[in-house]
Amino acid sequence: MNALDVLKYGHLTVLHTIEGLPESEWETGGVCGVWSVKDIIGHLGAFELMLVDIMGSFLGNVETPYLDKHLELGPGRFNDFEADRRKEWSAAAVMDEYQQAYERVMALAAQLPAAIWSKTGTLAWYGSEYDLEDFIAYTYYGHKREHSAQIAVYRDTLDGKGLYVKREK
Fold first, then answer.
1. Alpha carbon 57 to its chain's center
2. pLDDT band for position 158 (cuts 50, 70, 90)
């Protein structure tokens, strides 16, 4: 597996899904449970920051605030905590955080030694039988595809309101 490609294509899926979405539609709830598009992108941004922590830990960084919070709260409470933290942020601020975190992920990923990616047991809290590539595929790529599909369904509801902006394929 080429983990850098998997990271890139997951990111491009998110960008393609939100491209042209009017900012006025970013805060409508119900896209994923009670979450809006802004909440989803904020959630994905928090996950990118957690991946910054994880990749940084392989490079000797000892501070992992997002990973620590995820492990402390568990996935559900972490998601709600991070979505709530961004409630007052603008859609642009949430998107900027997501984009900047992604760029940090890619910079760190390029620095990781090849042997790290497929070494099982390096993420003991995730499962001793998994490696970083597995984590990227399941937790990041699959996660982004799932939320992008939810946003796409929401966008389809906007078509009848004249708000849907056709995207190039």
1. 19
2. confident
Q: Which two tokens stand for residue 49?
A: 């920051």
> How does pLDDT run across 133-150, given as a tens digit for each residue?
999 999 899 999 999 999
Q: Write out the two tokens for 60.
A: 């000797």
| Single-letter amino acid, residue 82 | E
User: Nearest-CA neighbor of 114 among 132, 138, 136, 126?
Assistant: 132
Q: Where do the H-state alpha helices sit in the chain?
A: 3-18, 37-58, 65-73, 75-85, 91-111, 114-117, 132-135, 142-158
Backbone angles phi, psi at 168, to 5 degrees: -70, 140
Q: Which of 91, 71, 87, 70 is nearest to 79 (CA)?
A: 70
CA–CA separation, 5 and 106 (whole Å): 10
**77 to 43, 70, 80, 83, 138: CA distances (angstroms):** 12, 8, 5, 10, 20
